[in-house]
Structures are given as structure tokens and as C-alpha cells.
Specification:
single chain, alpha/beta, 9-stranded mixed sheet, 19% strand, globular
Length: 345
Amino acid sequence: MDERYGWPLVVAIAVILIGCSGPPRAAPAPSARPAATTSALPAPAQETLPPLAIDAMRQRDYPGSDLVIERTLSPGSNYQQYIASYQSDGLKIFALLTVPNGAKPATGWPVIIFNHGYIPPTVYRTTERYIAYVDAFARHGYIVFKPDYRGFGGSQGTPVSAYGAPDDTVDVLNAVSTMQRYANADPDRIGMWGHSMGGNITLRALVIDPRIKVAVIWAGVNATYKDLLENWHPTGGDRPPPSFSGGWPGKFIDSFGTPEQNPVFWDSISPMAYLADITAPIQLHHGTGDTEVPLQFSQTLANDLQAAGKAVELYTYAGADHNISQGFTLAMARSVAFFDQSLKH
């Protein structure tokens, strides 16, 4: 199963350069900045930050909306299951929602925002794939909220590359606000899980929004843009890695230069340059047999987080594939326990 986001669509460069009451907004950028981001952007991008820039995303509002239950699905073993919807950038975004059975805790149930990996939008279905993953978290007493990013499933909007545009992360941060407004959820106990492309979205969300208390990433596409462009060579997927020509990489390079020519710009859009600002503990999982995303990506991320003094765990699974199928039970048990440490104690 190829869960990694492809690079099929381009955000036109002209567009690129242009959470009840009192919904929460993403926290303002901390005063301390990693060294790579302290320099002023070069003249072409100085007046208007590109929307993908971390500082630009920190300045946005993510109001979310009241949750709408669209359809009741067959229940799980100890939880109810629904198709729900919410608003993001004026678009109706659908999601899979699970709610535990039994008496709700006084403050509400803890929440896991579930960021799925890439599935071609034309074949993506809300209730397909990741069934065992969602079930494992739901059975352990979590509300699970799996957004269908814009253009996926029945969600409005046009799907674009999560690596070249902020849209998917915007939808996820609006999902956080929506869960904070949801009566069954505890607004202060929200974690995030991401796989592959969803891992990239999760890391970007973490450097933008401290409301996320804990995160688990499986086989995340997390690397500097230089590594994404030069060292991502999947052999098990149905798409080639991004290249220097065409698509959003070509547009960015035409306007700002290559990562070597303009590292300040490429750092400005990369969560890897903002790891010092992360406040949530992170657990990473990766199979050594992954032919979609290099194991080195997770190893480097873990090392960089440790160097920044952040709480991080990395688990590898000998011979396991991109979905960690061969180590699924152990990886899921570790993931549940990690969420429990931060969201149930």
C-alpha cells in the first residue's frame, strides 16, 4: 500500500507569493528562533512570506467549526463510529470519527488526530485503509479523528502536494480546533498520529501549534528539502520522487534558487529548521525494509530532536515495510502506551 503523498499538482507561484466562543488560534511564534531562520529572507520573498513558510502559518487563524455528524456507521467493539464534517478555509472537510462507549470523563475523552498517508485522491475512501490502526486507538479509549484532506474522499477543494503547499496542514490544524469545540472531547488532551506524508504534516503542525500535546509518527517523510529533492528515491511506490524540474519544486527553484543557492528560503518552509520550538514529546517508528521512505529520514530527525533537547523515542523494525506490517502489533502497542503517558496521566 503506497501511503506517501505524490507530487502531481502545482501551486501556482502567484498564489504562493500572495478552535464554542473565541475559537483558539495557533500560538504566536516563540521569541527564540533556530539559527537557520533568523536571517532576513532575500528581497524576492521579503515583503510577503509564502503561505508554506512556518512563520506565515503561525500568523494564521485556525478556527475550525462545530462538528457535524453526517452518517452513523457500524459500531466498533467498544466505540461508536461516524462520518463527520467540519469547516477549513471555507471548505467542507469530511472525517472519520470514533467515540468511546461508556461514561465520558469529567473533562472529556482524549483525542488522537489521525493524519493518514498518501492515497491517490481518486481512490481514497474515508472508511477504507488504516482500519486496524484506527481500531487499535479507538479500543483504548480515544476519540480518533481522521480528516480527509481537501480533495480527498468527499471533502471539498483541490488536492495539492503537502510538501509544496500548506493546505493539508491547515485542514489538520482546523481539525484540532474543531475537536476542542466538540463536547465529547477534552480540549487539553489532544495528540497527533501520522504516517508517511501524514508524518510530514504532523511535524509541520507540531512546530506551528503547541496545542498538540504528544505525537507519534510512522515512516514519516521528514527531512530537509535538500534531502527530499536529492535523496528520496523510493523503489516500492508507483511514483518517482520529486525532481528539480517541474511541479512545485521547479516553481520554487525558479523563484528562489536551489537549496544550496538559497538555504534561508528553504529553511523558512521546512519544519526541520524549527525543531527547537517543539513542545510535545515525539515517538518515531520505521521499518528497515521500507522502500518508500528512507530509514535515514527518521534516524536523522531523532538525532536532530535529541540535539535540540527534545523528548524523542525511535523504534526500528527489522525487515518491516513502509506500513510496518511485520511489526504492527508491537509498534501499535508502543504507540498506544506513548499516548497514554501524555494524555491519560
